[in-house]
């Protein structure tokens, strides 16, 4: 039985290419060190573009300017069965943007605690190490970017709604 208040986790990710290489973060996860695009959760009151700008800055110390939406991805991770029975797992809805950075870390800006370092990798280098990817979406987003998938930033509309009456 599904909980009545179920909702997916909304996340954002940034694809940044420079000279055929992609900006990635190496981060601590429950499964060990993994590679990911700069990414994270949408926070209360943010638009998706505000969230991806914030996450990229927090994880890379670089200012990110989104230019297009690459795609929207839904992933469900099952949780292992426990003594209480099967677990529902968690669903993520990921909005991936491409754009540019200033390629210089902001002076005095530290990376998020879980981020070990930033790295630049070619698509081939990334493709050669899938066991190091945080999720299969890491490569999927790069492949979609390389295939030319782009949607205008206003493809996703944000509407503020006042209190219920």
**How many separate helices?**
3
| Count of domains | 1
Q: What percentage of residues falls in helices of 4 or more residues?
A: 10-25%
Instruction: Give the amount of beta strand, in percent.
Output: 35-45%
Radius of gyration of CA atoms, rounded to a whole number: 17 Å
CATH superfamily: Nucleoside Triphosphate Pyrophosphohydrolase
Mean pLDDT: 90
Largest sheet, described in full? 7 strands, mixed
Low-confidence stretches: none
CATH architecture: Alpha-Beta Complex
Structural category is alpha+beta
Global morphology: globular
Order of helices and strands: EEEEHEEEHH
CATH fold-level label: Nucleoside Triphosphate Pyrophosphohydrolase
Topology, number of strands:
7
Distance from N terminus to C terminus (CA atoms, Å) equals 31 Å
CATH class: Alpha Beta
Domain Nudix hydrolase: 7-143
GO molecular function: nucleoside diphosphate phosphatase activity; ribonucleoside triphosphate phosphatase activity; thiamine diphosphate phosphatase activity
Pfam family, one: NUDIX
Subunit structure: Monomer.
Structural account:
A hairpin with a 2-residue loop joins strand 1 (9-18) and strand 2. The chain is built from 3 helices and 7 strands. The protein is globular, with a radius of gyration of 17 Å. It is 17% helix and 43% strand. It has one domain (9-152): Nucleoside Triphosphate Pyrophosphohydrolase, CATH 3.90.79. With 165 residues, it is an alpha+beta fold. Strands 1, 2, 3, 4, 5, 6 and 7 form a 7-stranded mixed beta sheet that branches.
């Amino acid at each position: 039985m599904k909980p009545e208040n179920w909702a997916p986790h909304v996340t954002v990710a940034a694809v940044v290419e420079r000279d055929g290489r992609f900006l990635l973060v190496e981060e601590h996860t429950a499964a060990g060190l993994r590679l990911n695009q700069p990414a994270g959760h949408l926070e209360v009151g943010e638009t998706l573009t505000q969230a991806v700008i914030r996450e990229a800055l927090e994880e890379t110390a670089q200012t990110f300017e989104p230019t297009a939406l690459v795609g929207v991805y839904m992933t469900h991770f099952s949780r292992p069965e426990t003594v209480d029975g099967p677990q529902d797992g968690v669903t993520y809805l990921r909005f991936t943007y491409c754009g540019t950075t200033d390629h210089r870390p902001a002076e005095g800006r530290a990376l998020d605690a879980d981020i070990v370092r930033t790295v630049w990798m070619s698509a081939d280098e990334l493709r050669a190490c899938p066991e190091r990817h945080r999720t299969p979406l890491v490569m999927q987003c790069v492949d979609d970017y390389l295939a030319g998938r782009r949607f205008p930033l206003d493809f996703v509309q944000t509407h503020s709604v006042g209190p219920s009456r």
